[in-house]
Amino acid sequence: MQPNQTHLQAPHLQFHLPAEADTVAFGAAFARALAPGLHIQLRGNLGAGKTALTRAMLQAAGHRGPVRSPTYTLAEPYSVVIGNQRVDVVHFDLYRLASPEEFLDAGFREYFGNDTICIVEWPEKAGPVLPSPDIMILLSIAGQGREIELQALSDQGMQCLNRLTAALTPPTP
Ligand SMILES: Nc1ncnc2c1ncn2[C@@H]1O[C@H](COP(=O)(O)OP(=O)(O)OP(=O)(O)O)[C@@H](O)[C@H]1O
Ligand SMILES: [Mg+2]
């Protein structure tokens, strides 16, 4: 039997983002590593930078206009370009989700598992009805800046983080 390469190589990345401009640059690099169908969960306290990172990703992928947390509507759809492909992205903010049942009743599960990229703030509010993510991101306040940790939880997630690592590694002279 072959060893389970997925678990042996699952990337766990950590970076310090000293200022908001670094979040913007990181979001742009991450946007280039995305692929259709990825499900990304964003965890972290109020003000940790979940929406700031999402905004940076969407704008780097060609979205013109504001990106705000969909605090009351809970979900906001976007259409962006990744590579040469137009891709649907749905940004969720589940902070005000009353119960996991509300998530199901709203039909949100239909977005997961097809070609739509789902980015979910406050995933813990949906509890067990939320499908498991490809990538889990944890943001935390660190001094004046932010700390970001990314963990791949599927093959698709691992491939995305490998593309991100390659993009962030400066070429050797
Ligand atoms: N690397 C950084 N260093 C310092 N400040 C940052 C950095 N990245 C983002 N910020 C700032 O942190 C704040 C993050 O706010 P944001 O709305 O993104 O938080 P959030 O995690 O989405 O919170 P909520 O849970 O309320 O939705 C913004 O004021 C933004 O300017
Ligand atoms: Mg937010």
Automatic annotation (TrEMBL):
Name recorded for this polypeptide:
tRNA threonylcarbamoyladenosine biosynthesis protein TsaE
Lineage summary: Bacteria, Pseudomonadati, Pseudomonadota, Betaproteobacteria, Burkholderiales
Coiled-coil region(s): none
Q: Which residues form the signal peptide?
A: none
- UniProt source species: Noviherbaspirillum galbum
GO MF terms here are: ATP binding; metal ion binding; transferase activity
Give a Gene Ontology cellular component term annotated to this protein. cytoplasm
Gene3D superfamilies registered for this protein in UniProt: P-loop containing nucleotide triphosphate hydrolases
Q: Which domain of life is it from?
A: Bacteria
Pfam hit, one: TsaE
What Gene Ontology terms for biological process does this UniProt record contain? tRNA threonylcarbamoyladenosine modification
Quote the PANTHER family the UniProt record gives.
TRNA THREONYLCARBAMOYLADENOSINE BIOSYNTHESIS PROTEIN TSAE
Q: Which family does it belong to?
A: Belongs to the TsaE family.
Key words, A-Z: ATP-binding, Cytoplasm, Magnesium, Metal-binding, Nucleotide-binding, Transferase, tRNA processing
Localization per record: Cytoplasm
Per the record, the major location class is: cytoplasm
